[in-house]
Amino acid sequence: YDYVLRDLFLWAILMNRTDIAKVLLCFMKYRICPALIATKILKEYYKEADYGHLQDGYLENAKYFEQYAINCLDKADDYSTELACEIILQQNELYGYVTCLQVYLI
């Protein structure tokens, strides 16, 4: 189930169907890493896009997913700073054992 959601989420981001991706993200067990991955993909799309309105859409959606990840970490930090640190450094099996910190720094 987790792999299906991951694949559908990535497909939605790659096809610029961010409305679908936002819904899928709500059903995912781990949300910060996919939100950061979506941010990275959409920022790359933004750099490559030729048209202003298309660029604007990519940038707007990249900011949405970035803010989503920030909000999730803020909520975790409100509960426990230690938990927030664990989330940032936890290896995510669904994405090749990458950590949220690694995704953010790439």
UniProtKB/TrEMBL annotation:
Extract the GO molecular function terms from the UniProt entry.
ligand-gated calcium channel activity
All copies of domain TRPM-like, residue ranges: 5-103
- Provide the primary localization: membrane
Under the heading InterPro entries, the entry gives:
TRPM, TRPM-like
Q: What keywords is this UniProt entry annotated with?
A: Membrane, Transmembrane, Transmembrane helix
Is Electron transport found in the keyword set? no
This protein's GO cellular component annotations are:
plasma membrane
Topological relation to the membrane, as annotated: Multi-pass membrane protein
- UniProt cross-references to PANTHER family, sorted A to Z: TRANSIENT RECEPTOR POTENTIAL CATION CHANNEL SUBFAMILY M MEMBER-LIKE 2 (PTHR13800:SF12), TRANSIENT RECEPTOR POTENTIAL CATION CHANNEL, SUBFAMILY M, MEMBER 6 (PTHR13800)
The protein in question is named: TRPM-like domain-containing protein
